[in-house]
UniProtKB/TrEMBL annotation:
This is Repeat protein (TIGR03806 family). Residues 1-19 form the signal peptide. Keywords: Signal. It comes from the Bacteria.
Length: 362
């Protein structure tokens, strides 16, 4: 696994034209050192443009100084939507490392920004941003804030009620369609919770520990946050692990499947989370155990012809595969966040289960 490289080992890395420097003429808020406008006493604002996270035209998704892009190694599937993710923090505060497997502990005033968009949208083969989700930390608690983009792609408006957006696009030469779901505030809470606490999911050190191509050149993402003053590097271990990329076919099938489940399912299938009533636990560190993956574990709810979550050697009799490939809202997994099956992951799951040594679970 890739190891985290400390900044001291990167002194010979030459950085030019740093995107951390404000553009000439770009107004900078002296209290934050950034053009971003984020008053915790005023948020959520009625429009996305009020925050000034992006340069104009906003649809270009070019961040202003201080808004740092990031990309997890493994990402959550959302009906094939593309996502651009960013972090912004006020001046003078830093996130703290907790563990490889827990999200960074961000301070109050932090904004996590995620734009959801499609390329090659029918009929004009255009790009279209559907929504921007914000998580802003205030008084130690995360706020869920959604903005829905207009057809002109000039503005996004606050909408916490949720909505469905039919979308048709071309993916690898094939026309696909989905009834894309923009979640309500309460729907966000279904996945982003431990008991009644609102939590982050993606920004874990082991899922950020990779090189990202920033505007000013490639750099390890954790090191970028340290360099920009967003992460305290004093207590970071020198050997933070990087979770395997599930899309890399050079990795074993089981490793790829466990990585996918970690990113897409583990946040609900853990203690005190929404699906904690089931016995399976899908965090990467726990799926080395076949039982936690559901091997020969009875299904939690009746399914036609399915007795076990995983019937080793037989995907067609495995409850996990049945629910993962179902389009029935009463049985499909995940419960929310998708309206169509992730075909590539379904193929991987089928291959993985069928590769397991067959055994009698009775």
């Amino acid at each position: 696994m890739r190891k985290f490289i400390l900044f001291a080992l990167l002194l010979n890395f030459v950085i030019s034209c740093s995107s951390d420097d404000p553009d000439p003429g770009q107004e900078v808020n002296p209290s934050t050192g950034s053009p971003v406008i984020l008053d915790l006493n005023q948020v959520p604002y009625p429009t996305l443009s009020t925050y000034n996270f992006f340069k104009q035209p906003m649809k270009g998704q070019v961040p202003v100084v201080g808004v740092i892009p990031y990309e997890p190694i493994n990402t959550l599937f959302t009906d094939y939507a593309h996502k651009n993710r960013y972090i912004w923090m006020p001046q003078g505060v830093k996130a703290e490392y907790v563990s490889d497997n827990q999200p960074l502990n961000f301070p109050d005033g932090t904004a996590i920004i995620k734009n959801f968009y499609y390329d090659n949208v029918v009929p004009n083969n255009s790009s279209k941003i559907l929504e921007t989700r914000l998580m802003i930390k205030k008084n130690g608690t995360w706020m869920f804030i959604n903005y829905v983009w207009n057809e002109a792609q000039t503005e996004a408006y606050l909408d916490l009620s949720g909505s469905d957006v039919p979308i048709e696009w071309i993916e690898n030469g094939t026309t696909k369609s989905a009834n894309y779901r923009i979640p309500s505030e309460s729907e966000c809470f279904i996945c982003h919770k431990i008991e009644e606490e609102k939590v982050l999911i993606g920004p874990k050190p082991r899922n950020l520990n990779k090189v990202f191509n920033y505007a000013d050149g490639p750099m390890n993402q954790l090191e970028k946050l340290i360099r920009h003053g967003y992460l305290n590097g004093d207590n970071l271990p020198q050997d933070i692990a990087a979770i395997p990329d599930w899309t890399h076919t050079s990795n074993p099938v089981e490793v790829r499947m466990r990585s996918y489940l970690d990113a897409n399912c583990a946040h609900c299938h853990q203690e005190m989370a929404h699906c904690s009533y089931t016995p399976i636990r899908l965090d990467w560190d726990m799926t080395a155990s076949p039982e936690n993956l559901g091997s020969c574990v009875p299904v939690s709810e009746p399914l036609p012809g399915m007795d076990y979550t995983i019937m080793p050697g037989n995907a067609n009799r495995s409850g996990m595969y049945y629910r993962f490939t179902s389009d029935d809202v009463s049985t499909k997994m995940p419960l929310i966040g998708t309206s169509i099956v992730h075909e590539e992951a379904a193929e991987l799951m089928n291959e993985w289960i069928n590769s397991l040594p067959a055994q009698n679970c009775n």
